[in-house]
């Protein structure tokens, strides 16, 4: 098998596991009365796996729409040239902190 085929199989397996976990979470939430019972809706087209997972996560309150500010930030980022985006990522990943990140996190939790 080629590497891509193996990677695709691994991704499909991961998606299946995530879908199973989401279904279990939905059942538990329904049993606790935190999620409405399932109703059948007829749609004109079948949802893709990605859309289906997004719908489930949105219904469970685990996925939200972006705020206008977040959309504006994303638009500004997308408008940057690729070289500028690469430069910013390089700067981010090579950032030198005065203290270890773990210390900064501990201080912020206090």
List the helices and strands and how they pair.
Blueprint: H1 3-31, H2 49-59, H3 68-79, H4 82-93, H5 101-109
Can you describe what's shown?
- This protein has 110 residues and is mainly alpha-helical.
- 66% of the residues lie in helices and 0% in strands.
- The protein contains five helices and no strands.
- Helix 1 (3-31) runs parallel beside helix 2.
- The N and C termini lie far apart (52 Å).
- The model has no long low-confidence stretch (mean pLDDT 86).
Question: What is the global morphology?
Answer: extended
What is the rounded distance between the termini? 52 Å
Radius of gyration: 21 Å
Tally of DSSP helical segments? 5
Class from helix and strand fractions = mainly alpha
- Uncertain runs: none
Total strand segments:
0
Summarize the main sheet.
Answer: none
Q: Could you give the order of the helices and strands? A: HHHHH
Helix content: 55-70%
Average per-residue pLDDT, rounded, comes to 86
| Oligomer description | single chain
Instruction: Work out the strand percent.
Output: under 5%
